[in-house]
Amino acid sequence: MKKILFVTSEAYPLIKTGGLADVSGSLPIALKGLGHDVRILLPGYALAIAAGHFEQVKLLHGDGEIAILEGLLPDSPVPVWLLAHAQYFGRPGNPYLGPDGKPWSDNPERFSLLCHVAVETAMDRLGLRWKPDIVHCNDWQTGLVPALLSDEPGRPATVFTIHNLAYQGVFSYETFVRLRLPNRFWSCQALEFYNQLSFIKGGLVFADRINTVSPNYAEEIQSEEFGAGLEGLLRHRRERLSGILNGIDADAWNPATDPFIPTNYDIDSLEKRPANKTALQQAFKLARDDGITLMAWVGRLVQQKGIDLVIELLPKLMQMPIQLVIVGSGEARYEQILLHWARLYPDRISVKLGYDEAIAHLIEAGTDLFLMPSRFEPCGLNQMYSQRYGAVPIVRHVGGLADTVADANATNLSLGQATGVVFRDATADDLFQALNRGFVLCQNKVLCRKVQRAGMSKDFSWRQSAQRYLELYELAMADRLTADSLLQITAST
Ligand code: ADP
Ligand code: GLC
Predict the structure, then answer these.
(1) Cα–Cα distance between 418 and 408 in angstroms, integer?
(2) Is 372 in the pocket of ligand 2 (CB under 6 A)?
């Protein structure tokens, strides 16, 4: 049995902005199910405290009053420690962004505090009487942990998972000074990145093992196109870099039992699925028509996800007999354009801005086609939810999308393996061709059923991937970086 401290900045259902929360709310449960002692450390955001049952187990002093609250991840046996700090985490709203849509200005202080408390927890210096074998860190908000732990004698092994390399936690030199990080970290072989402080480099340089959330993205990030300036470092550490495909919470995302959808169904009762399409059309005030092809989007409205490509295609799409529903939030310019189009075509396009978990489930259960034309996609979860729900995903051949969706080409169709439509280039033309192929597929009920069934038969659960994480933990523990090996890494980067 391994003891694992899972450090993360979001975990469903306590707090969620995207896929990191889904992973943090399901991988620990899978590891626990395999007999391991896994505990989550998460900032005590006001929303998170309100979403569970927690009691204070420690009061620490430092920069303001810091408390550790203890409870369980709701509906699970996984213990959670919340790091409560009224000034840094007590505010309502998004964990990273203020009401103006810009990052909170004290984010470096907030997540540096998380990292310091993670180190104290990992070294069992908080009196919690538990010392992990492994500290599993996720994304830049936890990046300082492997760095700060690196020269602690008797430290646990560290694993750093990249969920999205585009977010790096880069701040000024003044911030580095203000955070009172050890001077030796101010080096391009440590946390310095082009004269700035990079949180993510703490994970990439110092973790015993690095992984990302799909095998394909693990390769892609070693190239200039996807490496976001860190490709050299990642190539250098490729012996310790791997890709493990995310799993999904197969209980929360199960059309046979999903409480968010009006009509449950499974692979053997697909004829019941259209009732959800009707409910979806009704919820979005579109004509209730089973014959019309329904396309949907759930996700962040940012360039990464290719929403601009969809917007570019709207004039052409409106020439086709289709309906489009969009749920998401993100950049104001995309939100405004989408609202404008919804006003122009109220019976064809319906847009809900904001975050709505229940509607996300209804969309997977009701839509014919699910759009994910991402420019890059470390893993992506929605395309897996779509396949499980019998919605046909339209995805770009990139990152985890390429690893999880099999194109409906002649070969895959004849082998019964096609589960979606895959296109190559991030252009409106390529996306349009893919949408057309999806549209034609929907017209052919027999073929479409075949694709739906192939998707619904796939196993996207954590079963295999949780096992792969355990293997990764073994490797991290077996060849923990020593101060000497770190010198070698940093000397040649
Ligand atoms: P990312 O983490 O890059 O945003 P993923 O596909 O990994 O992308 O995960 C996104 C998760 O967030 C999915 O569970 C998706 O359903 C959910 N999601 C994103 N936007 C919304 C929204 N507006 N309403 C409800 N759920 C959303
Ligand atoms: C990130 C990525 C997404 C991935 C998620 C969970 O938000 O953008 O592709 O699925 O993390 O790992």
Answers:
(1) 5
(2) no
Query: Environment class of residue 186 by beta-carbon count within 10 Å: exposed (0-12), middle (13-18) or buried (19+)?
Result: middle
Distance of CA 290 from the midpoint of ligand 1 (Å):
26
Q: How many Å apart are CA 71 and CA 409, to the nearest integer?
A: 49
- Which of 138, 379, 381 is the best mutation target for the ligand 1 pocket, counting ligand atoms within 8 Å of the beta carbon and taking the most? 381
Contacts of 407 (CB under 8 A, 6+ apart): 418, 420, 421, 422
pLDDT digits (tens, 9 = 90+) for 390-417: 999 999 999 999 999 999 999 999 999 9
Return the best residue to mutate from 8, 20, 301 for the ligand 2 pocket (most ligand atoms within 8 A of CB): 20
Which ligand is nearest to the Cα of residue 299, counting in written order?
Answer: 1
Tell me the pLDDT band of 100, cut-offs 50, 70 and 90: confident
Return d(Cα 266, Cα 454) in angstroms, integer: 12
Answer whether 386 contacts ligand 2 (Cβ < 6 A).
no
Which residue owns the Cα nearest ligand 2 atom 3? 380
User: Are the C-beta atoms of 241 and 204 separated by less than 8 Å?
Assistant: no
Q: How far is the CA of 483 from the centre of ligand 2 (A)?
A: 32
At residue 62 the predicted structure's pLDDT band, cuts being 50, 70 and 90, is low
Q: Please, what are the domains in the chain?
A: 3-247+463-492 (3.40.50.2000), 270-456 (3.40.50.2000)
| Pocket around ligand 1 at a 6 A CB cut-off | 18-19, 22, 298-300, 327-329, 355-357, 360, 379-382
Query: What is each CA distance from 330 to 97, 298, 305, in whole angstroms?
Result: 11, 11, 11
Task: Find the 479 Cα to ligand 1 centroid distance in Å.
Answer: 35
Residues 6+ apart with CB under 8 A from 343: none
Q: pTM for the whole thing?
A: 0.95
Tens-place pLDDT, residues 160-175: 999 999 999 999 999 9
Coil, strand, or helix at residue 287? coil
Question: Which residue has tokens 């620990």?
Answer: 28
For the chain, the first-to-last Cα distance in angstroms comes to 36
Q: How far, in Å, is the centroid of ligand 1 from the Cα of 186?
A: 35
- Closest atom of ligand 1 to CA, residue 327: 23
Q: Does the beta carbon of 247 sit less than 6 angstroms from any atom of ligand 2?
A: no
Among all bound ligands, the one having the nearest atom to the CA of 20 is 2
Give 332-356 pLDDT, tens digit per residue. Answer: 999 999 999 999 999 999 999 999 9
